[in-house]
């Protein structure tokens, strides 16, 4: 066979191999046993809970130490309206708002300046709450994550190899009786990105509008991981104690209006897109100077009371005639 004919054959074989490899790649999910968070470690080894001791999310409770040196986080450029356009996207795993430049997170004990890249959401279903972190075992209806990369890194790959390469702001979202006008900027666009792969442009707005602006000095800090594959343990977490409030209708836009499937495919709602709670192990979990702590004694008392109730329920049949 002449060289001119052999080359295309090798090219075709290589293309077929790459196609097969891509086809066999397992995407992660939240609702099927073979690709749910408990199985992510099969396809993404760093997601396995025995690999490292800094997985996220965690339960935030009274078993943490207050650090008076942790003052408020400084959010540069969050108050302004930036030029250009942002993009709101359904990536099949979440609703992601891809941000332009001009915003950074620093201070509050963070080891550097972090350039803000995007934010995304986690939610439950029509009957369950869906925040990733829990506060004294309470799971909020939703949670928003604002993701920033340490400025010394020029790409995400580099940042993920740095134990403090990313800074993520976690914001609990609770329900109230009225629409949150600031949140409407996003929730009103959900129908336009109902299906996986759909994208719509968003006119920039002050990102501070989506934060508990009067309570930014009340937060919890710990070293953790991404809560989605590859689960890199490279995140400095700042989880604000005080939630923002939106209406049930605005929450329903996510729980009942976002599909993990593409348009034209079998409709599959994207629900309960949160990872399970992980142990803190020996990690230091800190409360900022202004954060409200649940006393450890109260936590212990609550657990003791629950144990007594369970014990009484076990004995209940013996009391009945």
In short:
Keywords: Glycoprotein, Lyase, Metal-binding, Signal, Zinc. This protein is α+β, with helices and mostly antiparallel strands and 321 residues long. Helices cover 21% and strands 24% of the residues.
Write the layout of secondary structure elements.
Elements: H1 3-24, H2 40-43, E1 59-60, E2 65-66, E3 73-76, E4 86-90, E5 95-98, E6 104-107, E7 114-123, E8 134-135, E9 138-139, E10 142-150, H3 156-159, E11 166-176, H4 181-187, E12 199-202, E13 219-224, E14 235-240, E15 244-247, H5 248-255, E16 286-287, H6 296-319
Structural overview:
This protein has 321 residues and is α+β, with helices and mostly antiparallel strands. The chain has helices at 3-24, 40-43, 156-159, 181-187, 248-255, 296-319; strands spanning 59-60, 65-66, 73-76, 86-90, 95-98, 104-107, 114-123, 134-135, 138-139, 142-150, 166-176, 199-202, 219-224, 235-240, 244-247, 286-287. Strands 2, 3, 4, 5, 6, 7, 10, 11, 12, 13, 14, 15 and 16 form a 13-stranded mixed β-sheet that branches. It has a 3-stranded mixed β-sheet with strand order 1-8-9, with no helix packed on it. Strand 8 and strand 9 (138-139) form a beta hairpin. It is globular and about 50 Å long. The termini are far apart. 33% of the residues are buried. Mean pLDDT is 87; it is low at 1-24 and 310-315.
